[in-house]
Design goal:
By secondary structure, the protein is an alpha/beta fold. Helix content is 40%, strand content 10%. The chain has a single domain, classed as Uracil-DNA Glycosylase, subunit E, CATH 3.40.470.10. Strands 1-3-2-4-6-5 form a 6-stranded mixed sheet.
Length: 201
C-alpha cells in the first residue's frame, strides 16, 4: 500500500539512520501531493531547521520570487531536499549523507509522481544526471527513460540553486531565464491526463 506524505513525515521523525539527525530536525518536503513539478535542493539551512520546512530562508524567498515570475505558487508545486537534516554550519552534505537520505527522497518521488523534476544545484543534479555538470545541464530538459516497464519517463530540468545567486549576483538573471525556459517547457507539454479524466473503455 502506498504511503501518504503524512505517514512518511511520521516515519522520518523516528528515523536515526543518519548522524545529522542527532543535532538537527527532520525536514521533509512540502507542497501539492499531485504536483506536476518537483523542486529538489541539497539540504536544509538554519531557518529550515528551525521551522522544519524546506526553502523558508533567504534562498527560499528567492525561490518564491522565481516561481511567481512564471505564475506559480509554492502550494502548486512540491519542494524538497536530497538530505533531510541541516549539516553543521551549512556545510555541503557528504556523499554518505546524501546516500543515507536518498530513500526518503525516492519515496517522496514515488508518492508525488511528478512529470518534471527540477534539481536545484549540483548535489541534487548528481543523483539524476551524474555525468553532467550544472553549467552544461541547466535550463534544458533531459528525459530519463523509465526504470520499469510500467513506469513513465520523467523529465529532469536542472537549474542553479537559488543560494548560488545570493553569493554570485551574476547568476540571478540566469535563474530567471532558466525559470522562463521551464515555463515555456511546461506550456508546450500539456499535463498528462489523470485517471479521473480518462474515459473508461
Amino acid at each position: 500500500m502506498q504511503l501518504t506524505l503524512t505517514e512518511l513525515q511520521e516515519q522520518l521523525q523516528q528515523w536515526n539512520g543518519c548522524a545529522l539527525a542527532e543535532h538537527a530536525n527532520p525536514v521533509l518536503g512540502e507542497g501539492d501531493p499531485h504536483a506536476r513539478v518537483m523542486f529538489i535542493g541539497e539540504a536544509p539551512g538554519k531557518k529550515e531547521d528551525e521551522l522544519k520546512r524546506p526553502f523558508v530562508g533567504p534562498a527560499g524567498k528567492l525561490l518564491d520570487e522565481l516561481l511567481q515570475s512564471i505564475g506559480l505558487k509554492r502550494n502548486e508545486v512540491y519542494i524538497s531536499n536530497v538530505v533531510k537534516y541541516r549539516p553543521p554550519d551549512n556545510r555541503d552534505p557528504t556523499d554518505e549523507e546524501k546516500q543515507q537520505c536518498m530513500p526518503w527522497l525516492q519515496l517522496e518521488i514515488a508518492i508525488i509522481q511528478p512529470e518534471i523534476i527540477v534539481p536545484l544545484g549540483r548535489h541534487a543534479l548528481g543523483h539524476f544526471l551524474p555525468r553532467l555538470g550544472m553549467t552544461a545541464a541547466h535550463g534544458k530538459p533531459h528525459v530519463l527513460a523509465p526504470q520499469q516497464d510500467d513506469a513513465k519517463s520523467i523529465t529532469i530540468f536542472p537549474i542553479y540553486h537559488p543560494a548560488a545567486a545570493l553569493h554570485n549576483g551574476n547568476l540571478r538573471q540566469t535563474l530567471f531565464d532558466d525559470f522562463a525556459a521551464l515555463k515555456q517547457f511546461l506550456d508546450s507539454h500539456s499535463p498528462l491526463p489523470t485517471p479521473d479524466s480518462q474515459s473508461s473503455s
